[in-house]
Amino acid sequence: MRLLPVLLLLFSGLTLLPPNALAKKGPTDYPATYAGGSLPLDHHRVRAALGKDAVVFMQGSRSVAVPLKNITEISYGTEVRRRLGASVLDVVPLMHLGESETRYIGVTWTRASGDIRQAQVLLQLNRNEYRELLAALEQLTGIKAVNTNQVPTVVRYEI
Questions:
Q1: What gap in Å lies between CA 105 and CA 3, rounded to an integer?
Q2: What are the strands, taking DSSP E only, across the chain?
Q3: Looking at residue 56, what is its pLDDT?
Q4: Where are the domains of the chain?
Q5: CATH architecture of 25-147
């Protein structure tokens, strides 16, 4: 008997919430920071939205659509730096609290037909969006991403 008022209160509380409060972000919309490249965007927050045929980079009222067939290269990498007060934070063993890791994804594509120059974008993402966007780009384009942290070394031996 006491369960009924609790259930009514629970369900009435859920209906008072706005519909977008329960909605999650779309699976193809990734928030990032524009870290550089040849796009006419500011070095601030940007959203990358994946569609069936294009990647759209949006910032405010500006948007740039890149056809997936024009993408020639995908790269990714990380940068590890020491935090302020790292000696105090590194007291806890195996936790690496004194280090901060920044994740980047770079995309290179050919411009419109007739233009031989390539365009590039470098995005800084958090850990979750980094993994999801990288996997989605590889799947949609069929291009294997290159890890920029593992630069191949060429050794030439002369006998």
A1: 51
A2: 29-37, 45-50, 54-59, 62-67, 71-82, 99-110, 118-125, 146-147
A3: 92
A4: 25-147
A5: Roll (2.30)
